User: Fold these one by one.
Assistant:
Number 1:
Amino acid sequence: MFPQKVSIVEVGPRDGLQNEKLALSASQKVELINLLSETGLRRIEAGSFVSPKWVPQMANSDEVFKTLNYQPDVQYSALTPNLKGLEAAIEAGVKEVAVFGAASESFSQKNINCSIAESLERFEAVFKLASDNNIKVRGYVSCVMGCPYEGSIEPKAVAQVSKSLLDMGCYEISLGDTIGVGTPKATSLLLDEVLKDIGVNKIAAHFHDTYGQALVNLYTALGYGVSTIDSAVAGLGGCPYAKGASGNVATEDVLYMLNGMEVSTGIEMDKLLVASSFISKILGRSPVSKVANALLAK
Ligand code: HMG
Ligand code: MG
């Protein structure tokens, strides 16, 4: 059964911009995020507090969070890989964070420089400080349908890490097809396993569109009742530690599909296109979204 309502988590300002060659200034990011916050989107991932040596594009996240035009009904969040990241996020006024683990050992090493088990240990301190500060913690699991270093990934491994993160205190797990290799069948096999032990209301789908499968995979996930979807305006993004990973599925494309399915999101396409055009102009290219290009050409 398809859900009647879907909550879209806009990850373009973080997952998208972290992988663009052009590093945006804080004021450009703030303008983008402000435009997104006027579209009806209720959740926006606005930055990350990671090592600037690893991801220089996110180095100005503190300035972004300090100068945003906060809308009362929008939840702004940030990635925090460790205690240092969370401390910086708190200092910048962040009220929701995300930790990120992986279902693949090699990817965990390349992305956060430690094993899966070590990453969970590191997160303990993050959960403690977050809870002391009433900060909600989301959990990402990367490489859920394939890893750039290990190839295929067992759905059981994904279910295990997801369960550990939930038990530690995450309120939601976002399943990342980091390199966009999944297909509808792989999505089904994944969700068959993950949903054995985890309620569907705790699961979000975070699919990259590298192989053009993101929408059909999302459609499959919607059929399982998944009602939280991560996407990036103008199809921004990728992942610096997953070579060849293209952007997240475009928010415009997801919205068009959901509108056609009469699934409500509260988002206005016209306003989303304003944000899409804005960021695409800065990056000097058209949006990576068929829907945006078709609508903007009218
Ligand atoms: P490390 O080198 O193992 O950490 O990095 P360390 O504790 O040894 O510290 C090394 C240096 O980093 C030190 O500075 C620390 O102060 C600094 P130095 O003394 O050399 O000058 N440092 C920090 N600086 C700022 N903020 C911090 C921080 N922590 C340490 N929080 C670390 C470990 C996790 C920090 C590093 O590996 C890192 O930052 N990795 C970035 C990973 C990342 O951002 N990846 C992209 C996001 S994940 C993603 O895109 C996937 C997702 O979208 C889902 C999907 O698609 O699957 C979420
Ligand atoms: Mg991602």
Number 2:
Amino acid sequence: MTHVLLEKNGQVAIATVNRPNALNALNSAVLDDLNETLDAVAADEEIRVLVLTGAGEKAFVAGADIAEMSTLTKAEAEAFGKKGNDVFRKLETLPIPVIAAVNGYALGGGCELCMACDIRLCSDTAVFGQPETGLGITPGFGGTQRLARLIGAGMAKQMIYSGKNIKADEAYRLGLVNAVYPKEELMPAAQKLALSIASNAPIAVRACKQAINEGLDAPMDEAIVIEERLFGSCFETEDQREGMCAFLEKRKHEPYQNR
Ligand code: DAK
């Protein structure tokens, strides 16, 4: 895989979209490599948190590849949209948390990519936007759905209809990102957060991700049942027993074993 680099530091892995000459634009080859990377991460039981970022100085991901898209037929465009949506959905439902470290432009498919992650941190140089209507198309990798869920329909419609980009401070104000850092502090901050998540019980973290994701799409009466089921699934695990015994015995818990 050349278009996505995967680096593993113990329980935290960093995946870097690596096509800096095209500002990491997503073509079919990048989507294929991202798909393979996610499969590899999901299969590696040691990895507890994934950080996703972009190569180079300017961009997280500057969108789907406009050159590749420009000549697509309707049928090919639908297939391309499905390919991207399948990969983004795999990312969104990966059984571990994913932190997007948005280190520059996150436009179109790039904004959509970071929205499929659990948590977004960004550099003060980051720029977000859904410029598709200016290109004669709609967002195609989930932008019309995830942006409205994250920042509300009113602001999502304004961003998508106008195609206007927003800077990091505005993205923070809207709740699109959780925090903004000076460029050089972004990756250390993402890794620090990743380590703190990785130190918690993986079965519980995974259950929380599933409960939040599935519950958001369900009516409250059903959502609360999803939570009850996942809450129950943590019990009788080694990590639940150790976590609670450690509290009662007033000691620090042993490292969690994912069992
Ligand atoms: N696609 C292809 N190449 C791109 C690119 C992109 N999205 N963004 C940048 N590049 C390439 C540039 O063409 C340039 O290549 P060379 O000319 O050097 O060969 C190189 O990256 C450096 O870019 P610039 O020279 O333009 O760099 P600047 O710093 O001057 O400008 C910029 C940076 C980010 C403001 C500018 O590159 C830009 O505006 N880029 C396009 C941003 C954009 O519009 N992104 C949204 C793309 S549309 C769907 C599926 C998916 C989608 C929609 C529908 N279905 C199937 C339904 C998704 C759509 C999108 O993401």
